[in-house]
Amino acid sequence: MAYIVSPFTTFADTDGSPLNNGYVYIGTANLNPVTNPISVYWDDALTQPAAQPLRTLNGFFSRSGTPARVYTSATNFSMVVNDNKGELVYSAMSTAGDVSQADFAAFQASVNASLATKLSLTGGTMTGAIVLPGAPSAALEAATKGYVDTADALKVNKAGDTMTGKLNMAAAGIGFSDTSTQTTAGVAKTGDTMTGLLVLSGAPVATLGAATKGYVDTTAATGSPVKAWVNFNGVPSNGTYTRVGTLITVTLTAHDMTTGQVANLSFTTGGATSGSYTITVLDANSFTVTDSISGSIPSGNVTRNNFIRASFNVSSITDNGTGDYTINFASALVDANYCVSGMMIGGGPANSGTINIKAATTPSVNSVSIRTLGIASGAPGSSGFTDPTYVTVAIIR
Fold it and tell me: pLDDT digit string (tens) for 279-312?
């Protein structure tokens, strides 16, 4: 909406003095306002109609002898101003009024709301991503992610990297601002002690070349007739366990194990995953293992079927029942034409016994199944399958 004002500072008479007792007509733009009046009001809410012609007092609209403002909903309108005698002072076929305070406030609020979504030229924090039209060309232009990633991929990582081309150095070589740490961080040619592992590039070729663990293990396995051996305890023992996430703490009275040994565990309740685990000893009656998956059941029961005291090329022992075991090789043998040799002691009433390849099974390159037959002390004719305290088996080829 707009309120009506004089095209000049005040309504003036023909002699330039403020128009007193004049007559003002407001009408449709480009039409005679006397014969085509429009609605005008004393308030900007357009609720108090003002009768036409409007009267003036000392150059201003007058309402009951008091200067007042007049409003209309039209943004353009025609106007005729007559003096107190009805003589024409001036007229305008199309003129515009001033903006009301309410409309200006609404306009200002709209502008402020729009500005709030913009980033100031002085800087600010973006709440969303900026998508640039392309890679930068000038030094101070913003860079796209693709431009940065491409450039970064061409650099050598400080933590270590593999060059795809030659590194051309200046004649002076690489300089260090402080050589004291550089001289002590390397391995002296005259001999030194490593504080970490030395990872070689491959198996040795020259006679004096450093050998990898894999080369030594393979050579030992190939050169020795013993392709695998194991010393294990086959007596089952029951206990309980608690778990937090993947960490399982087993309570087993006098478990007789040391850290790094492999135990075959069956979790009978609680949902933990049964299998062979490398254990970490906490004390004489408890140890921990790490499950492959996390569980929500906090506790349960467990049976330790057997545990490996020491071994070579044996990954685990599968418990198939009383006196019934499968020895699983860590690395497959060249063939199954090997010899199985073993001894046992302890387990129930038996002090000793014999170890045989399990009937109705065939040794393979990956495993062999055995049975442990105990002989009761003092009764050579009395025997039966038993779980021995000590079982030693060697695979010879």
Answer: 999 999 999 999 999 998 999 999 999 999 999 9
> What does the DSSP 8-state code read for residue 205?
-
Tokens (6 digits) for 29: 């733009």
Domain boundaries, the chain: 2-101, 232-312, 322-396
Mean pLDDT of 240-246: 96
CATH of domain 232-312: 2.40.30.20
Question: Which residue do the tokens 């200046």 mark?
Answer: 170
Q: Are 241 and 259 spatial neighbours (Cβ–Cβ below 8 Å)?
A: no
175 DSSP β-pair partners: none
Angstrom CA distances, 315 to 33, 337, 374, stand at 107, 20, 25
The b-or-e profile of 82-107 (16+ CB within 10 A means b, else e) is bbeeeeebeeebebebeebeeeeeee
Q: Is the Cβ–Cβ distance between 280 and 259 less than 8 Å?
A: yes
Rounded to whole angstroms, the Cα distance separating 50 from 7 reads: 20
Least Cα distance to 272 among 250, 258, 293 occurs for 293
Per the CB < 8 A criterion, the answer to whether 133 and 111 are in contact is no
* pLDDT single digits (tens) 246-279: 999 999 999 999 999 999 999 999 999 999 999 9
- 316 near 266, Cβ under 8 Å? no
Q: Can you name the CATH fold of 2-101? A: Tailspike Protein; Chain (2.170.14)
Around Cβ 302, how many Cβ atoms within 10 Å?
24
Residue with tokens 């500005």: 115
Q: What are phi and psi of 364, to 5 degrees?
A: -130, 175
Half-sphere exposure of 53 (CA within 13 A, CB side): 18
pLDDT score of 381 more than 80: no
Which among 166, 6, 165 is positioned nearest to 81, based on CA atoms? 6
Residues composing the chain: 397
pTM, two decimals, is 0.47
